[in-house]
Design a protein that fits this description.
Radius of gyration: 21 Å
CATH topology of the largest domain: Rossmann fold
Strand content: 5-15%
CATH class of the largest domain: Alpha Beta
Bound molecules: tryptophanyl-5'AMP
Number of domains: 2
Helix content: 40-55%
């Protein structure tokens, strides 16, 4: 039970529609959303307002927002169980973000490592939106009083900021927001690049061979795994620090097959990287193929998708409006 709302606990999470979704996003977050949705009051959004913190081609953004919504469903998000919506359809997120902007200090936001990384990547266009991005993320979460936020490891620091902002508001005004907990899986919270396994797998990696997308064909998946960078060793042993490439493939294989890392080590004793990579490729194909096939069917029915998103936005708005009304009142804004 949530102490503030007195109801089933709430989860909220989101993904940016900046590219097709990757197996990193699937293993780190989406898979857990699917598993958690039945036990929680669940809201999942496509965060299009986050996406424009770096330049987007409007037609691509529009198309990709629908792609990502369809992919959530293809992966198993059931819109009759969870609330599925697009962030910009619920303006209360941005409205709450303004209030949180006025609560967050410049210093604490400057410490966000993702901002430092992204501003280096987009050095020609470091927008104020990119800087305040984590505050909009905090608003996404707090506007629903989410208890739990299932994300990958790279979002931990943003969650910490969200918790601080919630506590600060509660302290300065009166208890209002639930202070959310991150839900970061033990395995799969940081899937690494297939080409540079010391780096996180990223949807925006310039080298397509680094990343497996959920929309990739069977042949593309097999090929990318076959070409994955490993090391000069021969045996299949899990050692994330010394042999990150093999460890990453073992993690992928473990999630796809349910075999433990120890079982995988023994399954491949005496066999080489070639056999191992072939098995990883096959297990990944078996996992991704049905998702991709469902995605193709769901994405083809744009009217159905729009209806789902309309229902989701209405439900989300009603809840967000409620929180915002309280926050406005406590802040001292005149009610009409
Ligand atoms: P985004 O769109 O970059 O990624 C979506 C989710 O996928 C996880 N993820 C990974 N997990 C494991 N290995 C990887 N290689 C990998 N790459 C990505 C991310 O941790 C994330 O959970 N700021 C967020 C989106 C967001 C959000 C929110 C999330 C906006 N508002 C509110 C939760 C709650 C982001 O950019 O995720």
């Amino acid at each position: 039970m949530n102490k503030i709302t007195g109801q089933k606990k709430t989860i909220l999470s989101g993904m940016q529609p900046t590219n097709n979704l990757t197996i990193g996003q699937y293993f780190g977050a989406l898979k857990n959303w699917v598993e958690l949705q039945h036990d929680y009051d669940s809201l999942f959004c496509v965060v299009d307002q986050h996406a424009i913190t770096v330049r987007q081609e409007p037609a691509n953004l529009r198309r990709r927002s629908l792609d990502v919504a369809a992919m959530y469903m293809a992966a198993g998000i059931d819109p009759t169980v969870s609330t599925l919506f697009i962030q910009s359809h619920v303006p209360e997120h941005a409205q709450l973000a303004w209030i949180l902007n006025c609560l967050a200090s410049f210093g604490e936001v400057s410490r966000m490592t993702q901002f430092k990384d992204k501003s280096a990547q987009h050095a020609d266009n470091v927008t104020v939106g990119l800087f305040t991005y984590p505050i909009l993320m905090a608003a996404d979460i707090l506007v629903y009083n989410a208890d739990l936020v299932p994300v990958g490891e790279d979002q931990r620091q943003h969650l910490e900021l969200t918790r601080n902002l919630a506590e600060r508001f509660n302290f300065h005004y009166s208890p209002t927001f639930t202070v959310p907990e991150p839900f970061i899986p033990k395995v799969g919270s940081k899937i690494m690049s297939l080409q540079e396994p010391e780096k996180k797998m990223s949807k925006s990696d310039a080298n397509e061979k680094s990343t497996v997308f959920l929309t990739d064909t069977d042949a593309e998946i097999r090929n990318k795994i076959k070409r994955a960078v490993t090391d000069s060793g021969t045996d299949i042993v899990f050692d994330a620090a010394k042999r990150p490439g093999v460890a990453n493939l073992m993690t992928i294989h473990h999630i796809c097959t349910g075999r433990s890392l120890a079982e995988i080590e023994s399954d491949f004793t005496g066999l080489g990287y070639g056999d191992f990579k072939e098995a990883v490729g096959e297990s990944l194909v078996a996992l991704v193929r049905p998702v991709r096939e469902r995605y193709d069917a769901l994405r083809a029915d744009e009217d159905g998708l729009m209806n789902t998103l309309r229902v989701g936005a209405e439900h989300a708005r009603e809840r967000a409006r409620n929180t915002l009304r309280k926050v406005y009142k406590k802040t001292g804004f005149v009610e009409l």
